[in-house]
Design goal:
This protein is of the alpha/beta class. The chain has a domain of 240 residues: 3-Layer(aba) Sandwich (Aspartate Aminotransferase, domain 2), CATH 3.40.640.10. α4 packs parallel to α11 and α12 runs parallel beside α14. The structure holds pyridoxal-5'-phosphate. Pyridoxal-5'-phosphate (PLP) binds next to α5.
Amino acid sequence: MSTSDFVNQAERLLVPVYGRTEAAFVRGHGAWLEDADGRRVLDFFSSILCTNLGHCHPAVTAAVQRQIATLVHVSNLHYSAPQLELAEMLVANSFADRVFLCNSGAEANEAAIKLARRYGHASGGRFEILTMLGSFHGRTMATIAATGQEKVRKGFEPTLPGFRYVPFGDVAAIEAALKPETVAVLVEPVQGEGGVVVPPAGYLAALRELCDRHDLLLMLDEVQTGCGRTGTLFAYQQMDVVPDVMTLAKSLGNGLPVGAMLATERAAISLDLGAHGSTFGGNCVTNAAAVATLGVLLAPETLPRARVAAARLRSGLERLAAQHPETIETVRGMGLLLGLELRDGERARTVAARALDAGLLLNVTAERVLRIAPPLVVTDEEIDLCLAILKGALPS
Ligand SMILES: Cc1ncc(COP(=O)(O)O)c(C=O)c1O
């Protein structure tokens, strides 16, 4: 099948919700994808930040192959090993005492939202969750209500009540917005879909202090920033803060669908017997993939190497920005979650299209931000190739 066959079939068969670029991929290895026409493409998008260890990482592939030949699924009415191994690893390497396992970021956030509602009902009948303008938390009815972008809610009204939006990065705005019914704050440490926006230094620590003063749950959505993407296993570990709740998905299974909501004991017990569930949450195969993924992320060399790669890529992007001030407004981000904000959206789309023609896959988010997120295993040569292709794709 050629790329145009894929495009024609997708147009005929699939619900047309995605704006797709004409690229169909058939194989992946490390930072590279191969398309249906046999062309190799350097993947600096990590399949929407889901393959932080690169495509088909051997440790994850071996774990999946082993597990799929042993036991594929056990219901949550019984016990199975991979989900317990995964929970042990998550608890041992984070602030959390307990874990709820699911299959996606939206589901992890649904669990967090339900937890906050239960926590609030038990502490004075509170229910409201404050979230940030520009945030993204998923596409289910609860998570579009949590998402601070009008376009994702448009046409789905009435949306779930109990959410209000405040400016990102502004603790005073949150304090001013508090009402007696407010029970939690849900926030991304770095806004991903919102345009790779990093909050001011000290923001989350100040938010922690505010939450403590008002008995609010601080819930971090690390669906995009987690799993080594920002240079530490979780972004909060660089931000002088300990949350009550954290959600993960995307790269937790290095491409397999795994989500998790992590919580402290005090918060977790709000979800008691029968309060929540998921048929496939904790699935043996996806959770074996997550155990293998975390194993590689926690190996002594992985995150230090990712930080070195991030420094090289960032300084290269900053050089490009200095050479093209008429096109590039800023470079920002954390670790290997980087954004190049261009001066206009059309130019961002043109640069991404030219880069793809030259063999580099990037993504445009928030209209005019080129999101640059290679796998953590990216080599210096691959970074230099990305920079060379980008240079060629920028208007001269
Ligand atoms: C921060 C954040 N939260 C939640 C989600 C939703 O995750 P999923 O698409 O797996 O439901 C995303 C997806 O982009 C995300 O970036």
